[in-house]
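Board work, copied verbatim: Succinate dehydrogenase cytochrome b556 small membrane subunit
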Amino acid sequence: MSTVDAPRSPYARTQRSGTNWEKWGWMYMRASGVVLVVLIFGHLFVNMVSGEGVRAIDFAFVAGKWASPFWQVWDLLMLWLALIHGANGMRTIINDYSSSPVLGKVLRGAVFASAAVLIILGTLVIFTFDPCPSVSPDQLGMLPSFCPPQ
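↓ predict structure ↓
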């Protein structure tokens, strides 16, 4: 039977050198959560409350928003923070509940790979989005007002 030492008894602490990634992951979750609340509520306010609400969200609305570098950076921050926040949360769940080290490593690799792919694709979409595509307006609906007529 094992016993627990008295709370104030001296103990030999094993010092590990290097970075405490669990501590930094915990701090990231708190900081990114606060920033994400601001970003998401700002996003919802602009898209749902101001203007005509949900009815106004179409290709022209998104093209108009992403024509501004401010909204590109806003959406990019929201994308990156949310995906990294979610992947870190999944990593924590995998660490807590995976039954074997090999399974945990495979699952963490899958979470990392999927988050990396989604971050890369989302970033490409935000920065390579062409608000004035070379297709007829009939195929997309209404084009933004700043696009030249075709």
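The mean pLDDT is 85.
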